[in-house]
């Protein structure tokens, strides 16, 4: 039978379990065998109990659970050829030559490297007598599919990465909670949210939460932004608004690329407006807890599609990342999606906002 491996890599994200469950059950329904690889790429390198055959019931009851039950890891060893050689051997010995990986752009880039190196790694294993040439002949190519699991929503070409919707809900719960205590005291709050170099969570939360001001990495504020922010907060108070909330993306910088800290924003508000100001850094609360309805059904759909991809793709086709765009599933060449994503900050820095804003759809390079 065809053997498919599935793993989660990088930061965990709500909905990863739904994707793993869908991969396992779709694979079984299609007559394939499926192996869960524990602790991300590290489990593939370590082998042993880190790679376990999964049956239907092994994924029972995980759909609504946060995190990833098969564990995740940011493996440094997988970044080395030595590590990838060990991983290839462990897969080959088990007859696994298809992989579904749920992770961020770094994890998916590593996956593509592994796929490209696969024939060379196999040749090396045969040459060094570690595996039998007959075994290699049956698994000459590695077929992969990537799903983007990251609360940051930082991949160009898809509407939402796995976990982003839940994280946004979590932030909104925090905004609602903060706004009631802020209003009671007529206080200002600076709320720092995750997202790495992407401002999606901050911007979407600020809009959905009716906040006063937002700072995101994609649009470093122009000089004098502090005056604008204070004027906005002052105007709110003048209209009778009792709570003020400024949302700060953790990756927000000024025009020179210096990080804007929540403490700095708090200091500005206190000094210029004389307001009692508090800081809340939400941290990993955003990544925890049960997945939203969207992250459950969308990840289930994506897991299903990923299995279909590894079972039907031609070994010569470019590796794909699978996501949802405009209520449909899209299969985007993996490296193009990663490259387009990396271009966004560069376009913004060069002042080409319109090109950056068009960074939507399967590819904005076309
Ligand atoms: O990429 C997901 C993310 O939660 C980012 O938003 C954040 O910057 C980072 O991971 C935190 O990483 P760690 O869990 O290693 O502290």
UniProtKB/TrEMBL annotation:
Q: Return the protein name.
A: 6-phosphofructokinase
Domain called Phosphofructokinase: residue spans: 3-308
The organism sits in which domain of life? Bacteria
The source organism is Brooklawnia cerclae
Q: What is the lineage of its organism?
A: Bacteria, Bacillati, Actinomycetota, Actinomycetes, Propionibacteriales
Q: Briefly state the protein's biological role.
A: Catalyzes the phosphorylation of D-fructose 6-phosphate to fructose 1,6-bisphosphate by ATP, the first committing step of glycolysis.
| Family classification | Belongs to the phosphofructokinase type A (PFKA) family.
Q: Where in the cell is it found?
A: Cytoplasm
